[in-house]
Specification:
about 30% helix, binds flavin-adenine dinucleotide, binds 1,4-dihydronicotinamide adenine dinucleotide
């Protein structure tokens, strides 16, 4: 069988790429090794984690916020199997949606492990070991990423878990040890803390959320501590003893020194993810990797081997579903002879905790490192009418604008619904807005988004409600 495009992997990068290629009239197929389509994001990532974040947030609200709004329902009781079923139904619905979309767009689907056998030849090996060779004018590698592991600590997905195991724990651990204060650690740590676990987060660096604006990270850490999550920064877990009924983790200062031992029922290892290229035959095909094992691509998402492209978590850049999707669209357009493009300066980043954390563009640390002169406008949710009336005043909006041109260079939000609000900032930045453009745009009252307008006004020290 012969195709214009074959995409290996059906995560948000792969399935979106295949649909766009088919829309453009290219004969397209996907190859997927797992039982369901949708990749990490739909099966064991974005979607199930957001279902548990949503359900556990409502559980906590029922316990702590309903009473003060005059809704007396008594103490909520956790039915964990039912909550897991709620999550699984959401995953199932999304996965089936991808199946439907691939069929609707007449994308052929092959089950098995894809390997680049020769230029223009893709070998697919199914579960039973049967092999089939497909011809392709272009191959897109969209094989995503896998959990990063710690030397000497074996993930059994029962007591020492990755995010995958942390999404299916059969009971709430009394004590949860989280290794890594990144996105996964804080999202899934929040889920289990809300459901009753004591959570300790151990982070190698002296701050949480590396890469995020430091002011945001510090303020967010204080909020999480108020909620009951404990942190041990500048520390590393050097070993976990699994011999007893409780895990015994050795925690050492990152800079060296004596270790202390901490008990836990479950340890979540969340120290990052690594590109997944196993079984693809890249070395034999001559496809180059970069120094971190990612498939190396040029500005057109092309590898060094003609006709082979790569997108998503398996290449450089933030490991985010929407980044993978946008690259999927761009590469399909490039293969079809059009001008596909991704603006890497405007990729929003959201942490779906309570409150949410969202950012787009540069942090203050980025701008200082680049020597760019900027002005910051900041507005707290304590001064926003809607946040106040809802008693949801944790957090702020911060806008960073170029001192000379006033162009918005970065927007950072800690606050309720920050993930939805950041879209306004992304659109504004995509259109090259100045802070004054945002400040002069009429925002509906009373909404949380007025905090964005006020932060924009604060860039020139003229916010009204502060
Ligand atoms: P993947 O989704 O990893 O898909 C790769 C696919 O390729 C898989 O289906 C795999 O089986 C298949 N494959 C691999 N090798 C082969 C082969 N040789 N042959 C055939 N098939 C193969 N991102 C967000 O933007 N928002 C979030 O809220 C979010 N939450 C997350 C929560 C968790 C717990 C995790 C782990 C990740 C989360 N992410 C989130 C990150 C997001 O899941 C990834 O960025 C995204 O899935 C990357 O998409 P992808 O298409 O590159 O790869
Ligand atoms: P991460 O890169 O966000 O965080 C890993 C953390 O572990 C870092 O703070 C790092 O300093 C720390 N660390 C590394 N080694 C350590 C050690 N030995 N001891 C203690 N700490 C150590 O990675 P994470 O949280 O695993 O997530 C992986 C990827 O998945 C992220 O890149 C993210 O983009 C994506 N993701 C996105 C989500 C979202 O968009 N809401 C949600 C979940 C994941």
């Amino acid at each position: 069988m012969s195709y214009d495009v074959i995409v290996i992997g059906t995560g948000p990068g792969g399935y979106v790429c295949a649909i766009r290629a088919a829309q453009l009239g290219l004969k397209t197929a996907v190859v997927e090794k797992d039982k369901t389509f949708g990749g990490t994001c739909l099966n064991v990532g974005c979607i199930p984690s957001k279902a548990l974040l949503h359900a556990s947030e409502l559980f906590e609200e029922t316990a702590h916020s309903f009473g003060r709004m005059g809704i007396d329902v008594g103490a909520p009781k956790l039915n964990l199997p039912a909550m897991m079923k709620f999550k699984d139904e959401g995953v199932d619905g999304n996965v089936k949606g991808v199946d439907y979309l691939l069929k609707k767009n007449k994308v052929d689907t092959f089950r098995g492990v894809g390997r680049i056998a020769a230029p223009g030849k893709l070998e697919v090996t199914d579960e039973g070991g049967r092999k089939q060779t497909l011809d392709a004018r272009a191959v897109v590698i969209a094989t995503g990423s896998d959990v990063a592991r710690l030397k000497g600590i074996t993930i059994d997905e029962k007591r020492i878990v990755s995010s995958t195991g942390a999404l299916v724990l059969p009971k709430v651990p009394e004590k949860l040890l989280v290794v890594g204060a990144g996105v996964i650690g804080l999202e899934l740590g929040s889920v289990w803390r809300r459901l009753g676990a004591q959570v300790l987060v151990v982070e190698f660096l002296d701050r949480i959320l590396p890469g995020m604006d430091l002011d945001v990270a510090r303020s967010f850490q204080r909020i999480l501590q108020k909620q009951g999550i404990a942190f041990k920064l500048a520390s590393k877990v050097s070993a976990i003893d699994t011999s007893g009924a409780k895990l015994k983790a050795s925690i050492e200062p990152a800079a060296g020194g004596s270790a202390e031992t901490v008990d836990a029922d479950v340890a979540l290892i969340a120290v990052g993810r690594v590109p997944y290229t196993e079984g693809l035959g890249l070395a034999e095909a001559g496809v180059k990797l970069d120094n971190r094992g990612r498939v190396a691509v040029d500005a057109h998402l092309a590898t060094n081997v003609p006709g082979v492209y790569a997108i998503g978590d398996v290449i450089a850049g933030p490991m985010l579903a929407h980044k993978a999707e946008d690259e999927g669209v761009a590469v399909a357009e490039i293969i079809a002879g059009r001008a596909g493009h991704v603006n890497y300066d405007v990729i929003p980043n959201v942490i779906y905790t309570y409150p949410e954390v969202a950012s787009v563009g540069k942090s203050e640390e980025d701008l200082k490192a680049e020597g760019v002169a900027y002005q910051a406008g900041k507005f707290p949710f304590t001064a926003n009418g809607r946040a106040k009336v809802n008693h949801q005043t944790d957090g702020f909006v911060k806008i960073l604008a170029d001192t000379k041109t006033d162009r918005v260079l970065g927007v950072h939000i800690v606050g309720p619904d920050a993930g939805n609000m950041i879209a306004e900032a992304a659109v504004a930045m995509e259109f090259g807005a100045s802070s004054e453009d945002i400040a002069r745009t009429c925002h509906a009252h009373p909404t949380l988004s007025e905090a964005i307008k006020e932060a924009a006004m604060a860039v020139e020290k003229r916010s009204i409600h502060m």
